[in-house]
Amino acid sequence: MTVNTHKGFTALNRRFILPELREAVRTVGADVVFLQEVMGTHSRHQQRVNNWPEAPHYEFLADTMWPQFAYGRNAVYPRGHHGNALLSKFPIVHHRNHDVSIAGPEKRGLLHCVLRLPGRTVDVHAICAHLGLAESHRQQQLELLCHIVRDEVPADAPLVVAGDFNDWRNRAHALLEERAGLFEVFRSARGAAARTFPSRLPLLPLDRIYVRNAQAHAPVVLPRQPWSHLSDHAPLVAEISL
């Protein structure tokens, strides 16, 4: 599953809905959850927002259902920070956050985790992505993603890359297929990436799940109810077989 948490707030930051989001994510029950825009800490919100958890948001979301989690801090500001996170029912034996920010105030990252599944001799690699809004930034970030795959992921290892690509022009598919051997699961199943943004009336295919050395089945865009008020991006789910 991949979902942009929007720092635990509804669109335009009108209401704090992280507890509702946690229940919805738990209902899906995915083995691995890729999170973008997840809050690490925020001192002002902690003092002013009702029901603000004491733990970082990724720990609050993991709760007792996902015993393993990793966090990659991307954006840091005077009162706190946020970034990408990965929740896993399998052991995370290694993780590394790659800063792929290009220029200016927009901070982006790629969180690379290595998962150890029972009975498997080859570890599974998972990369949680959140790319930039500018086309030129995304192109450079996609190149960096390909370098990470080449340098850090064994050629025979199963790989899942998921997250918010902000790729409304569909430029990522050909590059990732050619240079990293990655195939997008909705595109493979339905011929086109899923439309996910804005969640109330999805028009743009911003969110993706790519795989290599794995097969994807039954990719699904989660329905508007209850998700359209829990995130400004519609979450994606797919069954991955290794």
UniProtKB/TrEMBL annotation:
GO molecular-function annotation terms?
endonuclease activity
**Any one Gene Ontology BP term:** GPI anchor biosynthetic process
| Keyword vocabulary terms for this entry | Endonuclease, Hydrolase, Nuclease
Q: Note the superkingdom of the native organism.
A: Bacteria
- In the record, which residues are listed under signal peptide? none
Nuclease among keywords: yes
- Read off the InterPro entries from this record: Endo/exonu/phosph_ase_sf (IPR036691), Endo/exonuclease/phosphatase (IPR005135), GPI-anchor_lipid_remodeler (IPR051916)
Task: Spell out the Pfam families in the cross-references.
Answer: Exo_endo_phos
Give start and end of each Endonuclease/exonuclease/phosphatase domain: 21-233
SUPFAM superfamilies the UniProt entry points to: DNase I-like (SSF56219)
The GO cellular component terms are: membrane
PANTHER family linked to this entry: CALCOFLUOR WHITE HYPERSENSITIVE PROTEIN PRECURSOR, PGAP2-INTERACTING PROTEIN
Q: What is this protein called?
A: Endonuclease/exonuclease/phosphatase family protein
Give the species: Xenophilus arseniciresistens
